[in-house]
Amino acid sequence: MAFKRQNARLESFLKRALPLDKYERLRCYETAVIVSIDEKRALKHIILGHRTLYSTESPPKLLKTLLDLAEIDDVALVPDYPNFLSGTERENTHHIRIRYRRQSSGSSTPKSISSTPRGGSTSAPTSPYNRKISLEKAPRSPALQPSTLKSPSYGDSVFSASSPAASPAASPRVGPLIHEGLLSLKGPGELDIYVLVKQSPLFMELQTAILNYQIEATVHFAQGYCTFRSPSKTESDETALFQQMKQQIFAAKSLERLYPLIQELKTACERFLSIRKQFWRTPDLLKFLLEQLEKALKSSSTSHVAYNQEDQLEFSVLVLETLALTFRETEIAENRAELLANSRDLLFIYLTGLLLETDFSLVKQEAATKQSKETLEILDDLTDAATAVLFELSLASHHMAWQSTSQGSSFINICWLFNQIDSISQTKNFVKGLMRRVMQVLATVTRTTLTPTPSFPATRLILLYQQVYLLKMFLQYSSKTTLHIKETYAEEFRYYFKNPIISQKLPPEYPLTAPTLRLIDDVVKRISTDSISK
Q: Which of 103, 135, 232, 346 is 20 to 30 A from residue 532's alpha carbon, by CA?
């Protein structure tokens, strides 16, 4: 990964200490003073990984596991100054407090770490954007027959199904010793991190990494931790695969040909972080997908033939879901922040305008024909896919406010984004669809608990989190939309947004359940106040 801090000695140590797959997914590192039950004002390097918070000495000698992200209950910025520092060092310090609950006692026995081969067994696809529509189902329209949606061949396909199997043996790369469980006591505790720089991305990166874990772990839980065997692919193989997919997408001349190609791209994005990262290296595929999305949305609103309308809407949903997937866990991609900043007008202004100005009520609710009911279902899917994209754009704008690349005319932050959204008159139509989808979940009272069944999959809980998150952003940053929400949906918030009742409906074992309940509580509090962030 491309680190924001430049410490060649530390980076060389980390490359030797960690397996390659873990090293490539490191998010950031900082020099900090840590205070915990085991460490009293110890100067350390703090390293944030994909699912783990590490520490090591300065200079580095032994890499230690501070916490798994699964053990973290809360992360907060504490507005104080450390009394053990003085001068500018004291004034420039960021105090981050982590509340955690250790699952088991840490071991003091060091052990060596070996790398995982690139072709080894990995987790199953953990996309929160898997749709109920698949190419194997009965088609809705004559234009998208299964015979015309045959998957294209990419040579040694990485998408062929295979039964779970053990990975082939590989020679491990043994690195320096690593201690696990530096915070040794079981149960709740606090870890204080005093970052010794004026501007640090660590707090935002921690929040992002924890949310990524909660989303991925929720899907994993529902899937029963299934695994699949992935063919061995080198980085050059994956680059060649992506380039081949891109060329075939650009060459497609019809919806029937383009649909399965983008379906393949979506599948690749679900399974391989490297494909998602490559998406952000150049803007050409992003621009192409947005052009096709605009064309499909306009065609769907002008078509007078039902099955043509449905084809265009389904294609729009697929493109939006693929775009949402490309954002997942690609904050570490070297070029993403720069590309987003350079594509500000295209992605943050043009795309949000395209989504919010789209008529999501093309078909009246009282439509009685089967064809119209199916179109209504697709419109629900379109609302959900648009929600996922706006959610990812919101996270990206939050994240970019902490990035040094987002400056000058390309500056992007959450306030700017929702000011843009607030200026679009049709935003209230999107909010209407958003609230309707939220109410479909909150008004469900037929069961006391929602278990991981096909009728309420983990992906729906993730969608609920995204929906409530956007409601919070509207209430926090959009004055006109806030007024509209309070005036139009007062009864819904009064009677249905009740955490004691909702907590009985959501599966408590899902890692994303508790954050969702906290979001709902926050939204309810904001409904009762008039404050808007500027």
A: 346
